[in-house]
Amino acid sequence: MIIAKAILKINSNAKFAIFGEDINTCEIEWHEGTTPISKADIQAQFTAVEFDMAMEDLRAKRNKLLQDTDHYALSDQTLSDDMRTYRQSLRDITNGLTTVADVEAVVFPTKPA
Asked: 15 near 31, Cβ under 8 Å?
């Protein structure tokens, strides 16, 4: 999966098939006139792809927590300061993250009672 995502990060229109999971031993077939990309160039994208995947997971968790409290933010509800702060902290949780280690170190705020 990381190989495919790295290829698509380089060329979002690439058409290909991958046989194997290790970049050093896999075979890549290029289809529909896609210009082949070197394995070194593909592998060079792995760090960025791993970060993108970590951020996708973080956003999914964050979005679920926000969704779980959406009913508190309806127009006929008064949002407490604690809940407002919690929801803003969730929205801001991705700010300043630049590495997978940063993402893995994220601590989610505690939902107010």
From this structure: yes
Structure tokens at 50: 């791993």
DSSP per-residue string spanning 5-70: HHHHHH-TT--EEEESS-TTT-EEEE-TTPPP--HHHHHHTHHHHHHHHHHHHHHHHHHHHHHHHG
Q: Which residues of the chain have pLDDT under 50?
A: none
Full-prediction pTM beyond 0.85?
A: no
Residue 113's pLDDT is what?
A: 84
Compute how many other C-beta atoms are within 10 angstroms of the C-beta atom of residue 104: 11
Angle separating helix axes 2-10 and 46-69, nearest 10 degrees: 100
Write out pLDDT tens, residues 48-76: 999 999 999 999 999 999 999 988 777 67
Locate the domains of the chain by residue range.
2-44, 51-104
**105: helix, strand or coil:** coil
What single-letter amino acid sits at 66?
A: L
